[in-house]
Write a structure and sequence with these properties.
about 15% strand, Type Iii Antifreeze Protein Isoform Hplc 12, about 450 residues, alpha/beta, Rossmann fold, five-stranded mixed sheet, seven-stranded parallel sheet
Amino acid sequence: MNLYAKLMARQQAGNPVRVGLIGAGKFGSMFLAQVRHVPGMHLMGLADLSPDRARAALTATGWDVDAAIAPDFGTALRDGRICVADDPEALIRAGGIEVIIDATGIPAAGIRHALLAAEQGRHMIMVNVEADVLAGPYLAERFRQAGLVYSMAYGDQPALVCEMIDWARTCGFRVVAAGKGTKYLPAYAGSTPDTVWDHYGLTPEQAATGGMNPQMFNSFLDGTKSALEMAAISNASGLAAPRDGLAFPPAGTDDLADLLKPRADGGVLERAGMVEVVSSLNRDGSPVARDLRWGVYVTFEAGDDSGAGADYVRRCFGEYQVATDRSGRYASLYRPSHLIGLELPVSVASAALRGEPTGETRDFTADVVAVAKRDLRAGEMLDGEGGFTVWGRLMQAQDSLTKGALPIGLAHGVRLKRDVGAGAVLGWADIDAPDNQAVSIRRQMERQFAAIRPE
């Protein structure tokens, strides 16, 4: 709780934390809106494939572009300005940079940028959950070996959930469930970019005016993004993925402790210690009372014993008005909202000043695999997350390895070798896998983690 003091010390020493941001989309823009107000932090470089889009993002978030932009990284370092470039690798290599943020959302790009950042001695904030789920355990280990930080992005749900899990465990509570809320109905799994705006109550014209990408928004709707975020939390915390994928039970904030506990005790979980996402819609489409659509939660209990100590803690739950289930055994806390990129300076400061991540991938316990949205035919090209052909389902990593399942992060721009029926999990054997870095790193990670797991 002293990050601000540490930042002020860097400011007073004339040695701010120097940051490079890759990606000027929504998440990156929200960071741009805040970073210039943070003492002791200097955004030295912004890389985007479209420099015009990067400049527009700076303007939209209040920067005086004419005064702020430097012609090169050396000038930016010397004058405390920002260099806008279209080459992320040049940004990562720029002298003086301490922390790199990848906010591209492109798995292959995230892997490439992370490996170069580790090589160049930069800490990495991986906003790109797609890259993290595809190869995060491998990448995080590379950074640990280099004495660097590889971190989730504070403000996004995975990092916030991991913080709540860490809080509960540090307090001596047993974590029963953790996750987030979202808007979900089972029918959404078949949604495509052509149907997505109907579910959001928008016309395609309204969405286009707002600059909203239909495939990206569809990945939120069809459950893929939720699966990716829960896989990231599982791989960071050790909480298990549901064997049959996310259930998305309807639940409001008053229902969390009652529902998110083991089935044996009247809840919806296979067992204690799992990730799950709750829906803000009942199955008939009606809204859930006091929903958690934008928030995160943790459910916990006072140890796993039934002695006097646990009874005492349960009485404390009641005395201090903690929301519990009917038995008083299970309790929950939640945060009703998250501010994504507006909170990202916390990760940057924690990495540079404490040497600590705000959530870190540690193992390969969960995966997100591609599932056919419709009957697919040999020769078709897969279009990836949020598209017309596949959606992403959460799966336990061991099951994914055993099935030879195709990760959703590689189900884009690849051709099918054979027919796949609607609802079937796609496998490596179903595609012509390209020979590229992302595939190579993923396959290497699978071999590495399969070797340390029992059959």
